[in-house]
Amino acid sequence: MTLMLAATTAWSQSTLKIGHIDSQALIELMPEKDSVEAKLIAYQRSLEEQIGAMYLEYQNKVADYTNNIDGMSDIIKQTKEREIADLETRINEFQAGAEQDFATKQQELFDPLITKAKNAINEVAVANGFTYILDVSMGTVLYFEAGEDVLPHVKANLGL
Question: Which residue stretches of the chain are H helix?
Fold first, then answer.
């Protein structure tokens, strides 16, 4: 019983230092973020241009088919209908692939920023003796008033 009481007392007297940070706010402050966002916007525009070109081709084929259907033989009608259907399929596949490509590009571009932020948070945690640092931007912490916001320390570490 005495051993258990001593262990409980020692644990309750140990310093448990908890801090919190809004990692999204940190990323927003990092100067590299603007460059990453500019690259993402450019990439998104290039994807939109490609889909726009495909859609224009589709509209032209449909208009050509509609305007000339009366003079077409059955084999030409079938060929044109197949071309239009194939183009619809390619457009749908491209759109789905473009969404995945954009998500991959976004992760590829933001990963170095996230790594840099994590490393700075780890350095601040070690330097200031934190036991835990909770990320309040993730929505998993409902109450954090008693903790210490380490964003100022991490900003200083990054020179922001």
Answer: 2-13, 23-29, 32-68, 74-128, 151-158
Reduced 3-state DSSP string for 139-153: CCCCCCCCCEECHHH
Interval 115-140: pLDDT, tens: 999 899 889 988 988 888 888 888 66
| Tokens found for residue 35 | 């460059």
DSSP 73: -
Q: Greater confidence, 13 or 146?
A: 146
Amino acid occupying residue 115? T
Which candidate, 111, 114, 101, 92, places its Cα nearest to that of 43? 101
pTM, rounded to two decimals: 0.70
- What pLDDT score does 6 carry? 42
Compute how many other C-beta atoms are within 10 angstroms of the C-beta atom of residue 68: 12
Greatest CA separation for the chain: 101
**Do the Cβ atoms of 95 and 51 come closer than 8 Å?**
yes
Is residue 72 within 8 Å of 80, Cβ to Cβ? Answer: yes
